Structure formats: C-alpha cells, structure tokens
Amino acid sequence: MLFNRRNNKSVLYLQKGWFMSKTPWLIKLVRPTYGKWMLHHYDVRLEGYEKLPQKGPFLVIGNHTHIYDPVFLSSSTPFHIHWVMGAYLFKTKLLNFIFDKLVKGISKQQGKSDMHTIKAMRETLSHNGVVGFFPEGTRTWDGDSTPVNDATAKLIRLFRVPVVVFHLEGAYNSKPRWASERRKGPIILKVVKVIQKEDFEHKSIKELTSLLNSSLTFSADKWQKKSHIPYKSTNRAKWIEQVLYACPSCSSFSTIEGSKDTFKCNNCHSSWQMNEFDEIKGINETPFYPSVALWHTWEQSLLEELAKKESSVPLFTTDDGLLFQCADGNKLIVLSKNFSFNATNRTFIVHVASFMKGQTCFSEKTIVFNFDAISSIIINAKSTLEFTHASRIYRVRIKPAQSILKYVELYHIYLDSYLKEGI
Q: pTM value?
C-alpha cells in the first residue's frame, strides 16, 4: 500500500503487481499503523513511485537529510527495505534485538570498510530482497548532499542489481539536523531515477561515480528557491550554533548563539535573522551569508586556514562535556561526566575534573588524542563524537548548544592536508 496526497487529503491505495518481499512481522504491524500516522503527521507526499521495480532484488539510495528518512521510505513502499545502519545502534541488547532480529537491519561500522556489511547485503539481495543505504553515511548539516565516492560505485558494480535513486525534498527544511524542533511543512519523497544494471555494467568506476552523482546530488537551498515553500516554527534558529560555528563579522569560533528566529555572536554582538524559507539576513547591516550552506562553506575555509598554522594552542573556546566513554568489547564504559573538550590542529584534548577507572575515581587528568592515531571518526546524532584511537573506540558528548561538527571537520582537514603530504 502506498500513501498519496491529493488536495491535502490522505489516500491509501493498493497497486497490483507490486513485489512483496519477505517482511518481518513487526514491519507488517507497524507499516499500516505507526507508518501511516508518520506519513500523515509529517505531510509526506510521493512523486514518481510508478517507476519503482515490480520485483527484487534492487538497491534503494537517497540523500540523507532527516532522522526519519528510513521510516518515511519504508512506510511509503509495499516492500521491506533492509537498511544499512550505524553499528552504534546495535550496541545495547535492546536495540540490537530490535534492529537485528525484528527489523532485519544491516550493521555498518561508519567510517570503516566492513566486509560483514557487504556479505549481509549480498545475502539479502541473493534472496530477492531490497537493501537501502545512504551513500553519504550520515545526515547533512547544511542541506547539501556530499558527493558519492568511488567506493559506492564499486559496491554497486559488485552487486549488479538495479538502483532506485530517491530525493528527499523538504526533509531538511522540515527539521535540519541541528534544529531543536520540527518546522511545519511538506516532505516530498521523489523517485528520481531507476538505474538498471545494463546502464552501468560497461562503465568504468569513474563513469559510474559520475552517473550516481548526477542522479543523487541535492541542494536544499536550490530546491527551496525553486519551490518557495514556507516551513513555520517559532524556534527555527535555536541550536543553529551546532552548524554555524564561526562568525563572519569577527571570525571568532564558538561564539554564536541562536534563539527563536534570530542568532547572535557573543563576541562582537553581530546578529542575524532566519525566515521561514531558511533565508538569512543581517540585522543592522551586519555581514552575513544568505544560507546555512554558504555560511558553512565559508567557515570551513576559515577553519582550514587556522588549522594549517603550526600551533599547540587550543583553537576553540572550550566546550563543556556531558559524557566521556570508551568501548570494552560490546560495552561502553563511562570515564567521566565532568570534563571539557577542545582541540589543537593535530589533537583532541579531554580535560577531566573527575576520572573513573574501575571503581576508583581520580581527579584532574588531561588526555590527548593525536590525529595520526585516529583511524575513523563520526558524529552520532547531534552532539556525540565517536572515534577510534589506537584501535580503541571513544565517545565524547558535549552540550547541545555547542558544535561537535567543527572537531570532525578539523580532523578531516588534517587528514587531507597533512597525511597526503606525508607530514
């Protein structure tokens, strides 16, 4: 059954001939109940669903914008999608039972190649199943999709099955990753293209990567300029400092604070306003960038300039930590709930006021994580940094009105600028 909107009314209809994959009982229960409610509640609209294949196996990919992207897509299609999901979602017994046993999700350690994931995907496809994943690996912070790399093209070439490409339009505008609450407005799930295996089996990896990017690339700004749909909220700028971590007026870091539909720099007192179309304007002729995406591009270049300067001095205003953990097998051990977090251009710095080791509590300890010993790094949800340092996984969670994003981007600047040069 599919969900459609005509004249703002919800219509359920059954289309003959649809391939119905073997669906877990929980999905059979949830799709016509909670799934139907989610599609109605978030004003989800469908376009191009007549292009969907009549039978499996095939892949489903799309731009990743909203925390509920997999729920929207699974609820709007009559077949079960086995989603590739972050391994952190499987770490507790309860979530592992839900996502592995009930939902039949496929675990993926983000930031790493994972043969277990590839084998699980191949096994599902070999039984005419449908596998879904987001090539970006994580939700966008500014509405722009991240380009597909050659690794995704190689994966698709390996499986040799059709690829259904979705655009999730309005999902970022409905609730940006950094936002504190949902905005009221529609979400459109659009089938952009179905790439048949005949379309790519004779292409080189570079050609296939180009084909995927031409189909998948999406910009919330460009879409909004064309659609001009208002997304209403009384707190649309709250927590915007999670993504906008630098001020264009004074070039300071970690000084922006959002509230309602405005945000300001606490260093130079510049202020800006965001309207219901996500357009940014300066108040009292304050310098500004007209969108989150353009602002974010500028601050990344500023961070890159700063990161390339040789210095052992912390780069940012110190952030307040909420939870510092390390992994011990499948368990996460709490090291501290009272610490600060910062970084130099080559290290992360955790300064703990109290430190747990077993049953013993130690005080005043500084732990330095060198970038050259970090093998993978991701952001879980909004404010939790997870990284592997010297083969051990650590998690750092800071307060929500701060930016964890700048730390990941700093690390990638180091990786791109220094490791490639052999420094």
A: 0.89
